[in-house]
Amino acid sequence: NAGVTQTPKFQVLKTGQSMTLQCAQDMNHEYMSWYRQDPGMGLRLIHYSVGAGITDQGEVPNGYNVSRSTTEDFPLRLLSAAPSQTSVYFCASSYGEAGELFFGEGSRLTVL
Amino acid sequence: AQSVAQPEDQVNVAEGNPLTVKCTYSVSGNPYLFWYVQYPNRGLQFLLKYITGDNLVKGSYGFEAEFNKSQTSFHLKKPSALVSDSALYFCAVTIITGGGNKLTFGTGTQLKVEL
How far apart are CA A30 and CA A55, in angstroms? Predict the structure, then answer.
């Protein structure tokens, strides 16, 4: 099992550009989520999904879109990048609502 | 709203000594509590969790945590620290709502274990 795979690992964008962070898991987990990690702020939930076709907003959803067309994939889209979106992004999946989260290796995004 | 506090940004301990990383939480309902560890430039890894039952939870790499309902705390402990335990530790909490796995994380505590 590869677990949770995120791509790309690093990305530099200019303000106003759009991009998609990819996330895939091969554990057949129903629950998937996206977090961002900023210094001194821990991890904050952006969006989450409880299954294919079902997504919802987390704590900091503004400027991000998600979709869940399959159980395996949960991409995160930045519509118009802003410097405030410079962060490290983590995708995670779990089996069950209170199951342990399995994290990807992270995607470091810099917006100039 | 749920929240987690990790009052120490950094904890220093000598190898072989016991370590404690503190965590307190606030939720409306029965808490599900977790500890995760993050090594540099890596994703978070699960250490242990409390759901119900015994207040002392044992996890990976010799770590354990004690749930204290009256003090709303879930401190992480290890009897004898190793240099390889040096990492960033996160406490997290959630409750069951039927609406997804939505963990709230603390700000993290950097653990430094020195020879």
Answer: 11
How far apart CA B24 and CA B47 sit, in angstroms, is: 17
Evaluate whether B104 touches B4 at the Cβ level (below 8 Å).
yes
- Residue A8 preceded by cis peptide, ω within 30: yes
SS3 content of chain A, % helix, strand, coil (to 5): 5, 55, 45
CB-defined contacts A:B, below 8 A: 70
Cβ-count burial A57-89 (b if 16+ within 10 Å, e if not): ebebbeebebbbeebbebbbebeebeeebbbbb
pLDDT at B48: 96
B111 pLDDT band (50/70/90 cuts)?
Answer: very high
Instruction: Please give the average per-residue pLDDT across A5-10, as a whole number.
Output: 97
**Closest residue of chain A to B30, computed from CA coordinates:** A98
pLDDT at A40: 87
> Which residue among A31, A41, A106 places its CB closest to the CB of B101?
A31
Strands A10-13, A102-103: pairing kind: unpaired
User: pLDDT-based confidence at A64, cuts 50/70/90?
Assistant: very high
